[in-house]
């Protein structure tokens, strides 16, 4: 069992494990509402649109997380303000800000001599460089996101499932749309340093999609999504440590791998398990074609496999 303990003997790995567990839980919980509302594209666009904030903070020698946070909030409110006019659709506003923000960030960063190295770190993450200060900020932002979702869970659920019902109940749909966009922006910001700008969407969507294959109960789905995100994150770091794979990529690959397994073998709903269950329930067509066989007759008398 020494292989299980060895990574924890290094301080940088302890920080990395702490960061990925926090990110897994935060992204898992927020991701459930992202998938329910069909906002995966917005999550991806927002992750790219905050890029100039990251670059500006880097060039000024400040905190990358704070730079990303400011940019994320500005973009979230910008999308809401542009789409609110009714002349530009929500997805069009997202596309414009996504492309413009990312291009602006690349333009700023390209003026630096270390352009290629810095761009790689921003796009693919640098979880092994997480410090205690980064962990504290991630924990603080995560607490804000999780407590806000918990406090307004009823309104967020109603808006996600039935906007007409939400308006009939006196819920300010626009206000809670903006609130959720800000929460999503915060969840993306805390994920940037761990899995990077390119792969952040996978941490938002994949654990939630996996949990949705396992349960229809929203509360259970949220808990499962957070657990899957944290466990897959830790497993991905082990793979990265022992196989020399980029940490962000290994975390995402493990998460996608778990989704694939659940998609195929989830009890009752998996592609393969559902097919096997149907075959067991209805019997084998080739045996049903020969009703005089003893096994088929036994099944019809209720002493063998059921046949319909």
The CATH architecture of the domain at 11-201 would be: Orthogonal Bundle
Q: The CATH topology of the domain at 11-201 is what?
A: ABC transporter involved in vitamin B12 uptake, BtuC
DSSP helical segment count: 16
* CATH uppermost class of the domain at 11-201: Mainly Alpha
Average pLDDT score? 80
Work out the number of β strands.
0
Helix content: over 70%
Biggest beta-sheet profile: none
Cα(first) to Cα(last) distance is 51 Å
Please indicate the percent range of residues in DSSP E strands (runs of 2 or more): under 5%
Oligomer: single chain
- Helix and strand composition category: mainly alpha
Order of helices and strands: HHHHHHHHHHHHHHHH
| Radius of gyration from the alpha-carbon trace, in angstroms | 24 Å
Low-confidence stretches: 288-293, 295-308
> Shape, please?
globular
Descriptive account of the structure:
The chain is mainly α and 308 residues long. It has a domain at 11-201: ABC transporter involved in vitamin B12 uptake, BtuC (Orthogonal Bundle), CATH 1.10.3470.10. 80% of the residues lie in helices and 0% in strands. The protein has 16 helices and no strands. Helix 2 runs parallel beside helix 8 (132-151) and helix 7 (115-124) packs across helix 11 (173-214). Mean pLDDT is 80; it is low at 288-293 and 295-308.
